Amino acid sequence: MASQSAVTEVCEGRAKVDLPQSVFYNPVQEYNRDLTIAIISEFAERHIKNPSAYLVSRAARKKFGCQKENDPSSVAVTADIDKDKKQVVLEAGKKYQNGIRIFEGLAASGLRSVRFGLEIPGVKEIIANDFDKNAVEFIKRNIEKNDLSHIMMAKHGDAAMGMYESKAEENLFDVVDLDPYGSPSIFLDATVQSVRDGGLLCITCTDAAVLCGNALEKCSATYGAVSLRSKFCHEMAVRIILQCIDSHANRYSRYIVPLISLSVDFYFRVFVQVFTSQKQVKHSCTKKAMVYECVGCGAFELQPLAQAVPTKGEDNFKFIPGNGAPVASECEHCGHHYRCGGPIWTDPLHDHEFIKSVIARVEDFPSPLKTKDRICGMLNVALEELPDVPLYYVLDAVCSVIHCQPPNMMLMRSALLNAGFKVSMSHAAKNSYKTNAPSQIIWDIMRTWIKDHPVSEKRLAQGSVAKAILEKAPKHQISFKAHPEANPDSREKGLLRWQANPLPNWGPKAKAKRSQPGDLTEKRAANQGKMKKAKIDSNSQDRNHSAAEPETQEHGEKE
């Protein structure tokens, strides 16, 4: 065990934990942990009070006397259970036999799991796993420190193996939380098999550079999709992660339903449920698409991988490949070529009803979460997002293409609404807008705008993107008259949506090194004079070798 001098006590939420210097800790991630606690709390309450809200496992159906998912008796039995349990007031820190089982695969000091035990009501068991023996010792220490031995246990081992060992139906987890340094891809195969029907996965990805197009070959190898370095790259990254998780689930006749999917600061965090249904898995191919983006003006189009065509019989479909490329060889607006990325997830990123419940829970949380304002602000922006419109434009980027003074965002939103299209912000980027308007409308708005805000002739060189776009006449009538729905509620209420830099150098920290028991002082003492010792040992070996030579020669001559 490390000496006391190498240990730091960290207080976060209701938890007080001891951290060795070797264990990774980033205080900026408190937002991540607060958000996760709020979401799992909502999930746990629904699990206990309303089990019919989720697809229960075959074992549970058998226990309740129901052999089929659509067995009429299941409704009656579940209704009785609900009626009884709705009277229960759940408490954090208390063990519930019918509560949720949580597995944290990469627990480090166990801070996250300790907070789960102290702040999430409706818990049966929490398993905090880590591959570092020293970290596991600190997890045990922190369990005792916070009096959580009745619902929390430490586990030493590989996270993936720990999940594979729980594949049996009676051992499945209700919640799996993965917060790795970098990509979680090596754990996904085990993860999608280790949760029950309707179980919750909470997954973080911190390899933003890879997912945002800085290394498309690495993204393809890791996530099975090509990323594009574009203005919409942060939402594209989230959608690449979702399609990857869904693809892993599909191999086991399972599919995902995203509850909340976010791009936050320097990482991505997704919360998805996993369900089992061979029939529904077939529709997964219709939820993914390729992305075509013009390298000149940035206009983009989506190409679905497949289509579901209704056939004879109820809920029967024939699946056919998507139609040909949605774009020509050259962009109709600027004449440049397109590049292709994906596939990405194109179904909704969020469950709006679930988000509303989480917001209400955060506002009334028993012990207010430190990052409450930002959680509510960001979730309100996510709630406002158009669910059926993947990706977004950034107003400043659009204006930079034609080198014009940018209009006020409210004017841009009004122009789109006045033209009969939908528009919203994206939580993934400031000054962004998602719209179902075609790119032709976007450029017609800009062509109309520059009539009163002309572009310098110096910017309109022959062959430039700006000249190619602006020399075309608008095809649609555009009005910048203020629209009553142009200002979103989150903006009008002044909600906190994006975090100000909380600390100097507050981004991703260096990866924690796997440690052995013993603190830094002990390690330094052990390594003191290492080079001198190595030299002495080397000289000693040389002397021994020289002394042994005659003996070896004699032995050789005798043989």
Automatic annotation (TrEMBL):
Keyword tRNA processing: yes
GO cellular component: nucleus
Catalytic activity: guanosine(26) in tRNA + 2 S-adenosyl-L-methionine = N(2)-dimethylguanosine(26) in tRNA + 2 S-adenosyl-L-homocysteine + 2 H(+)
Biased composition (Basic and acidic residues): 534-559
Region (Disordered) residue spans: 500-559
InterPro entries given in the database record: SAM-dependent_MTases_sf, Trm1, tRNA_met_Trm1_C
UniProt entry keywords in alphabetical sequence: Methyltransferase, RNA-binding, S-adenosyl-L-methionine, Transferase, tRNA processing, tRNA-binding
One Gene Ontology term from the biological process aspect of the record: tRNA N2-guanine methylation
Signal peptide boundaries: none
Domain of life from the UniProt record: Eukaryota
Any one GO molecular function term: tRNA binding
EC number: 2.1.1.216
Record flagged with keyword tRNA-binding: yes
Protein family: Belongs to the class I-like SAM-binding methyltransferase superfamily. Trm1 family.
Record protein name field: tRNA (guanine(26)-N(2))-dimethyltransferase
